[in-house]
Amino acid sequence: MIRLLALAALLAAATCCAQERAIPLSQLRSGITFAGNDVRAMQNDDGANPGLLWVQQGETLWQTQGCSTCHGDARAAMKGVAARYPAYDATSRSVLDLDARIEQCRTTRQKAPAFGRESDELLSLAAYVAFQSRGMPYAVSIDGGARAAFDRGNAFYHERHGQMNLACTQCHDQNYGKRLLNETLSQGQPTAFPAYRLEWQGVGSLQRRIRACLFGVRAAMPAPGAPELTDVELYLAWRAQGLPLEAPGVRR
Amino acid sequence: MPDARISIPPKVNRNEPFEVRVQIRHPMETGYRTDDVGKSIPRNVIRAFTCRLDGDVVFSAQLSSGIAANPYLRYFAIAQSSGEMTFEWVDDAGVRGSERVAVTVA
Q1: Boundaries of domain holding B85
Q2: Is position A8 within any domain?
Q3: Residue A84's domain is classified under what CATH number?
Q4: Residue A113 belongs to what domain range?
Q5: Contacting residues of B for A50, CB less than 8 Å apart
Q6: Is A168 a catalytic site residue?
Q7: What is the pTM of this model?
Q8: What distance in Å separates residue B75's CA from the closest CA in chain A?
Q9: Span A235-251, pLDDT tens digits
């Protein structure tokens, strides 16, 4: 009996640290695999992908806004960076997503006014930085300072929200691939963002997409940049571990 | 802010059609929408687009409010010799944009 208890305790100890995954890593699918042929063709062809217009502006801003003075050539310096975000930042003692990190660099180091969430400039720079990691696998850290934010994001993802009383997990883990009216439910992977969404006729951030989902279930939408949204972003990035970044992706 | 991406093949063959692809960053505001307080947003679409090869018009288009934001144009052109291809467009607000690329005939 004691031996059994000890075994159970050992097992519990082993499972406590390894976070459980609703979708096994081998079955993760990018949102583009749920999209139609037109959208796929648009994303796969850089000559047709409108997101590259934002990347091009980001490249200009990288030079004109002084990013290159410290960081040098983004193609080398920013390679793989976006795959590690959101990440814990020791100076602000919080988890920052890529947009927040760029804003922080701008306001605290450059002493320049912030661009503002969802501004064209910030989206362009974020798209340009993320573009340097295209094809690289997601690999965020959820240890140390990021753990608390990850746990909050995890809880948010599994809580029910809004008048529809739906949790993220109910669509994106339990029912992906099925249809919701004329939409195919995706796994809710963040790989495309910042993405060109045809509905937006422009590039938008992952936070904007999460807010759109919350609007869809008639829930209160946290303001852009709210910590709740960053927590969910971190959870989603962990959940997408190993999937290649597609930024700037194209979505319906 | 006028901003465009042009893609043409790095080398083209004399008298053989080659593909020109143009993406222009533009809101293409239809004029049918209203803002949050019900005021109508004036139409602002790219009215005219012209592509010239060494001064000769090879393609031109009149766009209207039926075209989505960030219009994407794709057409074919023929070059007899290497030269410069220029692209010009103007929108309802009178903002002009232009871009130029070199065409190299192999």
Answers
A1: 4-103
A2: no
A3: 1.10.760.10
A4: 26-251
A5: 23, 25, 70, 72
A6: no
A7: 0.90
A8: 13
A9: 999 999 999 999 999 99
- pLDDT of A15: 44
Closest by Cβ to B3, choosing from A46, A48, A56: A56
CB-based contact B70 A56, cutoff 8 Å: no
* A11-51 residue pLDDT tens: 444 444 467 899 999 999 999 999 999 999 999 999 899 99
Answer whether residue A163 is part of any domain: yes
Residue A12 lies in a domain: no
The CATH number that applies at residue B19 is 2.60.40.10
For residues A210 and A232, is the Cβ–Cβ distance under 8 A?
yes
Per residue in A192-224, pLDDT (tens digit) is 999 999 999 999 999 999 999 999 999 999 999
Our count of domains for chain A comes to 1
Q: Count helices and strands (H / E) in chain A.
A: 11, 7
Report how many Cβ contacts below 8 Å link chain A to chain B.
33
Which whole number is the average pLDDT over B92-105? 94
- State the SS3 of A126-139: HHHHHHCCCCCECC
CB contact under 8 Å between B23 and A47, yes or no, is: yes
Instruction: Return d(Cα A90, Cα A95) in angstroms, integer.
Output: 9
